[in-house]
Amino acid sequence: MAAEIVVVTGATGFVGSYVVKELLETTSYAVRAVVRDAQNADKTQFLRDLVPEGDDGRLSFWSADLTSDGSFDAAVMGSHYVVHTAATVSLTARHPQRDIVDVNVNGVRNVLRACQQATRAGTFRRMVMTASVSTIEDLALPAGHVFTEADFNNSATVQNDPYPYSKRMSEQAAMDFVQALSSEDKFEVVFVNPGAIYGPHLAAHHLNGSSAIIRDLMTGKVPMCPQLAFGYVDVRDVAKVHVALLTQGTAGASSHWSSSTLLTCMSNPMPQSAICWWRAFLLAIPFSGENIERLDVKSGVPAQSCLNKQGWQALHPTVITHYDQLTHDLQPLFDSSKIRQLLGFEFTAKEKTLKDSMDALIAHGEVESPAEANS
Ligand SMILES: NC(=O)c1ccc[n+]([C@@H]2O[C@H](COP(=O)([O-])OP(=O)(O)OC[C@H]3O[C@@H](n4cnc5c(N)ncnc54)[C@H](OP(=O)(O)O)[C@@H]3O)[C@@H](O)[C@H]2O)c1
Q1: pTM here?
Q2: Domains, the chain, ranges and CATH?
């Protein structure tokens, strides 16, 4: 019998590539990797290298663009599942409505229309979509609020926070789309809402996100501990959950929006300040001796060792749009119990996430190894 087919959009991305890896390593599905340009070997070779020996033919490449209507139709036709990770992941843009919101919202509609056609053709079952905690985490809520799938970020607008707004509107667009489907066109949509995603990068072009922050801490470009708290999660956990939710979970369980969707809040619960996480990380770095000494205090991190708003913005200007809400005094709290219970799943320990991220940066030659740095 022919293998069932999973389509992964955004397959070149940080999350998408781990979803492809997880599918190839732990399932027997055939995988269609959707990328902007299937001929671009620079962007796709690292994915070809993930194919287990003797499994040639399980991974195929398809070209599609979120901004082009009908672009995903061919890739999705005849498939059984879609993991939709593709999005513009950009916090700012000159034209935020056009370049962030429209791309992400129209993009998801494009993919959903392709799923509808595949449903009519008799194969399609479920789309798992990478959403974000930024669609849940309403920073206007009082400190101490514990975020769950029941929350919705109502304060983000295209003016004040275009990326979270685009993610929220993408979810809403997907909700509206499936709700309007006739019974013969019905398929399921499941949302995964990860916090900030960390973990070892697989390709050099992934160095535009969390890996770049870790690299800059390791090299000393950012010589202090970011005074920030936010929900985070390991990229490998994110991939595992996307793949598990292709078939597991009863769609409809406890979603407040629609009877055909399941929301999954995925962020490490944060009973202690995230700043301790950063501190543990900095102390683990074996070759920034000078900085470590300054940070190595027994109880907490001294204020002077924390990078303040101006310093952080200077180093990572696009990262911090909500610094004031994210300082360690106002740590956001997430309850991720639903997904852990549903899948019998535990999050990767933060020390492992960080250690593996650092090892990857060294292995890829982005940061000198301690031995080389000390010689
Ligand atoms: N990273 C995080 O901390 C985080 C946290 C929560 C949620 N998420 C969500 O996770 C998903 C994946 O993010 P990521 O971190 O993996 O980002 P990423 O590495 O930038 O990957 C984004 C992917 O989307 C593709 N893409 C962008 N614009 C496209 C377009 N117009 N048409 C087709 N494909 C397009 C990119 O293709 P190219 O390679 O061609 O650019 C890339 O494959 C996104 O939906 C994001 O909102 C991310």
Answers
A1: 0.89
A2: 5-199+231-266 (3.40.50.720)
